[in-house]
Write a structure and sequence with these properties.
It is built from no helices and ten strands. It is mainly β. Helices cover 0% and strands 45% of the residues. It starts with a strand and ends with a strand. A hairpin with a 2-residue loop joins β9 and β10. It has a four-stranded antiparallel β-sheet, with no helix packed on it. A three-stranded antiparallel β-sheet has the order 1-10-9, with no helix packed on it. A three-stranded antiparallel β-sheet has the order 5-6-7, with no helix packed on it.
Length: 103
């Protein structure tokens, strides 16, 4: 189902923001006009990814605890110690609002 998270203008470009929706923790990352949504919990340790550093050029976010990088487009880990992907959700901007598909 499509869920409205809020205004895209409220998101800081190049930073992660955490949203808790329907029992899920989501990391929402805005890069310019694009918005990416992945599961907020690192697949290696119970750490919030939204607090990590975003690399806009590589389209990744780095776990603040152990440094695993996750691809924002796929949720796949790009570096150790994480070996499992995090969930990735389809997101779009509709009338200025971030809308995510929670399936």
């Amino acid at each position: 189902s499509a869920t409205r998270l809020g205004a895209v203008g409220d998101l800081i470009d190049g930073e992660g923001c955490r949203f808790d929706v329907e029992g899920r923790s989501l990391a929402v990352i805005r890069l310019g006009d694009s918005v990416y949504v992945i599961g907020d919990t690192c697949s290696h340790a119970e750490i919030s990814l939204s607090e990590g550093e975003v690399d806009p050029a590589a389209c990744t976010i780095e776990c603040p605890k152990h440094g695993s990088e996750f691809d924002l487009r796929t949720g796949e880990p790009r570096s150790l110690p994480a070996v499992r992907p995090v969930p990735r959700y389809e997101a779009s901007v509709v009338d200025g609002d971030v809308v995510v598909e929670l399936t």
